[in-house]
Every structure is written in C-alpha cells, then in structure tokens.
From TrEMBL:
Keywords: Membrane, Transmembrane, Transmembrane helix. This is DUF2069 domain-containing protein. It comes from the Bacteria. It holds the Pfam family DUF2069. The chain crosses the membrane at residues 12-31, 43-58, 65-84, 90-109.
C-alpha cells in the first residue's frame, strides 16, 4: 500500500459511508416493499450510528476511521441478514457491498497513514553524515 493510493482509500471510505446512509434512507423511505415498523424510526435507528462518523471520515481522521471499521462490520452482518430476507435481498446485497467498501477504504487508509508515519519517524531519527 503506497502513499500514492491514499486519496483512493479515503475516497472509497467516504463513498462507502455516504452510500450506506443514502441506501438506508432511500430503501426505508421509499423503496421498501412493506414495513411493520414506522419508517422514520427505522431510518433513525440505522443511520444514527453512521452520522456520528461523517465529519471524521470526511476529514480523514485516523481515530474515526479505525472506529468506523467496526461499524462497517456490523452493517455487513446486518446486510447478510437482509440478503436472506424475502423481498429485501437487493437491499442486503447493496448494504454488504457498501459496508465492505467502507471497511476496505478505512483499513487501507489507516494502514497507509501508519506506514507513512513510521517512515517519517525513521527518516527523522536517521543519523546524518
């Protein structure tokens, strides 16, 4: 993982996060075949955990991206559950794809930042001749 791909990893984590939020709002607001719970409650419950991390992900904050990886795994699990639910297979599949995109982007971004910082520290402590 090279530093030249840093922008790509950051962009993929942003697309994954905002895509998950948009998918949840669109599916539960307009596209869901039938719901037993109120739409607003379901939208609020599923988007609230993601909304806490939007600012940090947009700014590329290391700690936020580490935390959002755990949230992405939760949404991948939720997507798996929906993928095997009748009439909501597409919703589950899209949720899995977007959460994997979010996880992969956040992981590669934080890993690249960590490698870059270690290289900078090694250059700093390297004795000059």
């Amino acid at each position: 993982m090279s530093v030249k791909y840093l922008k790509l990893w950051h962009t993929s984590s942003i697309v994954g996060l905002l895509g998950l939020i948009a998918l949840i709002i669109l599916w539960n607001g307009w596209l869901a075949p039938q719901q037993t719970s109120p739409k607003s409650l379901e939208i609020a419950l599923f988007t609230a955990p993601l909304l806490f991390f939007v600012r940090g992900v947009l700014h590329g904050r290391y700690q936020t991206l580490v935390l959002v990886m755990f949230i992405a795994l939760t949404y991948a699990l939720l997507g798996t559950w929906y993928a095997f639910t009748p009439n909501e297979g597409l919703y589950g599949t899209l949720m899995i794809i977007l959460s994997i995109l979010l996880y992969t982007g956040a992981y590669c971004y934080t890993r690249t930042i960590m490698i870059r910082d270690k290289q900078a520290e090694a250059e700093k402590t390297k004795p000059h001749k």
